[in-house]
Specification:
- The protein has 532 residues and is of the alpha/beta class.
- The protein is 44% helix and 14% strand.
- It has helices at residues 5-20, 35-48, 60-74, 99-102, 105-108, 130-138, 152-158, 171-176, 206-213, 217-228, 240-252, 267-276, 309-317, 354-367, 373-402, 409-416, 419-422, 429-432, 437-445, 456-472, 477-485, 496-508, and strands at residues 24-28, 53-57, 79-81, 94-98, 118-122, 142-147, 164-168, 183-193, 199-200, 203-204, 233-236, 257-260, 281-284, 299-302, 329-337, 371-372.
């Protein structure tokens, strides 16, 4: 099986991290981008080296899925460590293991501590729980955690266990490169009041959410008739009884709705019938967030509001796969009214910063029609940049007076419009420490003011960006400072040659701007837009 370009890059990056001594590393791939295929290939690489590998998961379906994909893509078969099944005595070098089984001390002690050389954690955002940690601390092994796009809060938490992020492939990139379906978001003009809902474990309490949602179910069903009657929809609800009640309401409105939950005896049959088109709506109480795929789904309705971005991504991920005839995924959002808590909205799936996410949510709410997420992101980023530039102008006026020789990192970020730098928050231990002496010297040499860069992760990101810009032939920080002090705009988007030409003309004119050039409106002939 031939890997896609990002899957091959991920496979290589993971091996490199382990070679560097980062024994616990993380892979982030959006749902539908083949994370099981990637870790199957990593397993194949390790087995060829004579290693034993353990794949850990917390649900039976995930273990079965991993075993099937591993055999399909590599031909390797697995032993199982789950309930009464044991891998001890098996000659297979790969074991799929249930966390609930292996966490028991009696079971763990049957294995020598060095029995496994590599451990793979499927759905790695669960791995900070005590049950996973007990197993991970017991074995002396390299660890790979695999997860769909987590939010920065998750990354910070995961950074307390993992040493590094080996590779990340973003949702916008996957959509742009044609591996996932485009997403359109529509905010339904229904105000749903969550002010009475309490919190539990860092998110909303599901029993309270069910009660808060009940009064609105009829209206929500009417809105679905208006916006999604011709679509294949999956609806996530907080409680089984709410899910069952909503299924009945939808059927009264003319939908062909079914419901599945953990107790459904005919679950496999219902899922198969939904896949084949017997039903066009599937209601569930958070059962289908992991390990289930139906690519023809083209509408997701999240009626289980959450603050946890990885959970939100998982729900939406049930509809992002490609399917013949499917043009986009429609994501329905609501006007959730909440006092204190920042909820996940469609914008959080792709926005690089909270400012951009808020601006996107505002635009989607105001439009009243489905909007393409990437287009909204682009417009919201421009608005946020304009707001930041206004605030920055005051700072720059002060800087001009001080005639600094170095560029403030914030000016550099704004000039090149690097949203990933502006919104950067360190996740891993090493990133949070101060920049190293070597980083400080390099930044200064390249024209960036190092005392404004307050952590090693940001320093590393800026240095990587400067290397990339040099390779792409874009302007240097010193050119940016020189020209922007003279009133030229977004010099960071120009090519190095364009910057050099105008500086040479200014120098030839006695270091004054040549007549006929208005810096505010000036655009170089070959303006380079390689960097966004």
């Amino acid at each position: 099986m031939e890997l896609r370009h990002y899957q091959q890059k991920a496979r290589e990056s993971i091996q490199q991290e382990w070679q560097k001594g980062n024994t616990k590393t993380l892979l982030v791939l959006p749902t539908g981008c083949g994370k099981t295929i990637v870790f199957s290939k990593v397993i194949e690489d390790r087995v060829k080296k004579g290693e034993r590998v353990l794949v850990l998961a917390h649900r039976g379906e995930l273990l079965d899925q991993a075993a099937d994909k591993l055999e399909q893509s590599t031909g390797l078969k697995c032993a199982t460590e789950k309930a009464e099944q044991t891998s001890l005595g098996s000659w297979f070098r790969v074991v799929v293991g249930s966390v609930q089984t292996l966490m028991r001390e009696k079971r763990l002690l049957k294995f020598p501590k060095d029995f496994f050389d590599t451990i793979i954690i499927d759905e790695a955002h669960h791995c900070l729980s005590d049950s996973y940690q007990r197993i991970l601390h017991y074995f002396n092994a390299n660890v790979l955690g695999v997860t769909a796009t987590p939010d920065r809060g998750d990354m910070k938490n995961l950074g307390s266990y993992f040493d590094s992020l080996a590779y990340e492939y973003s949702l916008p990139k996957a959509i742009k490169e044609g591996f996932l379906s485009p997403i359109k978001a529509l905010t339904i003009p229904l105000k749903l009041d969550l002010t009475a809902v309490s919190q539990q474990g860092g998110d909303f309490k599901t029993s309270d959410l069910g009660s808060a949602l009940d009064p609105y179910l009829e209206q929500i069903a009417d809105e679905m008739v208006r916006t999604a009657h011709d679509r294949k929809s999956v609806i996530f609800l907080p409680l089984v009884k709410t899910s069952q009640r909503f299924k009945e309401i939808l059927n009264e409105k003319g939908f062909r709705a079914a419901e599945v939950n953990g107790e459904s005896k005919d679950r496999a049959e219902i899922l198969e019938d939904f896949d084949k088109g017997k039903y066009n709506v599937l209601c569930n109480s958070m059962l289908l967030t992991e390990g289930w795929d139906c690519p023809s789904v083209d509408c997701i309705v999240v009626l289980r509001p959450t603050k946890v971005r990885s959970l939100y991504s998982q729900m939406v991920g049930r509809g992002t796969r490609l399917f013949e005839g499917k043009t986009e995924l429609l994501l329905l959002d609501f006007l959730w009214h909440t006092d204190r808590h920042e909820l996940c909205h469609p914008s959080h799936l792709i926005a690089d910063s909270d400012d951009v996410a808020k601006e996107m949510t505002k635009k989607i709410e105001e439009s009243g029609v489905p909007l393409d997420l990437e287009e909204v992101q682009s417009s919201a980023e421009e608005d946020v940049v304009a707001q930041r530039e206004e605030a920055l102008a005051k700072q720059l006026a002060e800087m001009k007076r001080r005639k600094r020789k170095l560029v403030d990192p914030l000016q550099f970020e704004m000039s090149i419009q690097a949203e990933d730098l502006s919104g950067y928050v360190p996740s891993f231990g090493w990133e949070m420490g101060p920049p190293s002496e070597d980083q400080v010297n390099k930044l200064e040499k390249l024209g960036i003011m190092p005392d404004q860069v307050d952590n090693a992760g940001k320093a590393s990101k800026i240095l990587d960006r400067l290397d990339k810009r040099r390779d792409e032939g874009l302007t240097t920080p010193k050119q940016i400072r020189f020209l922007e002090q003279r009133g030229f705009n977004h010099v960071g988007k120009w090519s190095f040659e364009d910057g050099k030409k105008i500086i040479d003309r200014i120098a030839a004119n006695g270091w004054r701007t040549p007549p006929g050039i208005n810096p505010k409106e000036f655009k170089p002939e070959g303006e380079n837009h390689a960097e966004g």
